[in-house]
Amino acid sequence: MTPWEIRQFRRQSLLRPAAPAMLRHMQIARAVLVLNALCCCHGIVAADANDALRVDAAFPGGNIVVEAIEGDTVALHQDLRDTRDHWFYWCFRVQGAAGRTLDFKFTRGNVIGVRGPAVSTDHGRTWRWLGAEAVNDSTFRFHLPSGAQEARFCMTIPYLEANLRQFLARYRDSPGLRADVLCKTKKGREVELLHLGRLDGQCRFRVLLAARHHACETMASYGLEGILESVLADTDEGRWFRQQVEFLVVPFMDKDGVEEGDQGKGRQPRDHNEDYAGESSHASVRALRDLVPRWSQGRLRLALDMHCPSIRGGWHEQIYFVCRRENAWPEVQHFSAILKAVQTGPLRFNLNATDSNAKWRTSPDSDSAKFAGWAGRLPGVRLATTIEIPYANAGGGEVTAETARALGRDVARAVRRFLESGVM
């Protein structure tokens, strides 16, 4: 029953006299309708009064709309909210189903990744890919262990404020790290701002890093962690960074979207990564555009925006850089060659995929409203670009939290070589 039908039912029941027995039945029916309406709003549906099975998204990063539960089959779809086009992010929790084997059928496109869904049976603390063998078209099957209180499923491996706090706690005593706040969001959340490396103002170079312009692109955050680990590590690399470079880092450009489980990509009326021209709509973009020119002091050399591509197919399963300006192409090629040469991690960078995404050939200057286009026009910047880190499969390699961090450490190694090279 639609919300309009519920309102009509309520209005008619108030206007029309009824016998006591009928009135009691109507009150029960009204209660059931209201309960069902509330459940659907929060992605919660009970199959029947005797079934303990619950499916919901009432936790940070949650996103699902449950359509129906019939026996052991759950029909559901991703909640697009204010995203203008079809997209694929979802994340939900199942409770009260220990010992059962359930089928989860998505009704709005095949939004399950190439390694199946990510699954957690420890309240979201650890995640693993369920595997493609558990998937049949747009349906996946999972057996909940007999002692499982809950299971969580996601099209990616989530990364939220809680994950960032755990990371920062490991380095709370590091003199090479200072945590600050860039601004507050429209909904009152703090947007974290990190300073890493040499923090006394005497650095030789400055580097700007940003992630989660699109809230759902979680694997970029694990890659970012790998870069930050390298800067703070007690290694030759880390010591060099802390002597030569100051990093300015915004881990969550769309903080509200990250915590609320939004798609973020194609957000209306304006995507966070399409907010860098004219007057910015989003507080985080406005604050960053105000801060960076004052902070950089002509020493900003590299600006890197970290993203994930689409869910599957072709170069969406490769690691690559995006270049939308012809004059930036030589430096993109230069940095790409360095990364290819210094890689030691299990996820291999693909030079051909970067060449395929030289978008300046078909859409010149198409980044004027994007982070990379804005940063590329700042004084002293040699390279402003976007790296795309796949969700689950990178050239045949499995993308996990740890392999994405290893890629980040490779990127950090390339950043050092790039800054030392001095090639303009």
Descriptive notes:
This protein starts with a helix and ends with a helix. 32% of the residues lie in helices and 22% in strands. The chain is α+β, with helices and mostly antiparallel strands and 424 residues long. Helix 4 (219-232) packs across helix 5, helix 4 crosses helix 11 (401-421) and helix 8 packs across helix 11 (401-421). The protein is built from eleven helices and 19 strands. 44% of the residues are buried.
Topology:
Elements: H1 3-15, H2 20-41, E1 54-56, E2 65-70, E3 73-77, E4 91-95, E5 101-106, E6 118-120, E7 128-129, E8 135-136, E9 139-143, E10 150-154, H3 161-170, E11 177-184, E12 190-197, E13 205-211, H4 219-232, H5 236-244, E14 245-250, H6 255-260, H7 283-296, E15 300-307, E16 320-322, H8 329-342, H9 351-356, H10 371-376, E17 383-388, E18 393-394, E19 397-398, H11 401-421
Parallel strand pairs: 3-5, 13-14, 13-15, 15-17
Antiparallel strand pairs: 1-4, 2-3, 4-10, 5-9, 6-7, 6-10, 8-9, 11-12, 12-14, 16-17, 18-19
Helix pairs in contact: 1-2, 4-5, 4-11, 8-11
Reading side by side through the largest sheet, how are the strands ordered?
11-12-14-13-15-17-16
Quickly count the helices.
Answer: 11
Strand content: 15-25%
Question: What do the pLDDT scores average to?
Answer: 89
- Low-pLDDT parts are 1-42
**Largest sheet entry:** 7 strands, mixed
Structural class of the helix and strand makeup?
alpha+beta
Overall, the morphology is globular
> Percentage of helical residues?
25-40%
Radius of gyration: 24 Å
- Let me know the number of strands: 19
* Cα distance spanning the termini: 64 Å
Give the helices and strands as they follow along the chain.
HHEEEEEEEEEEHEEEHHEHHEEHHHEEEH
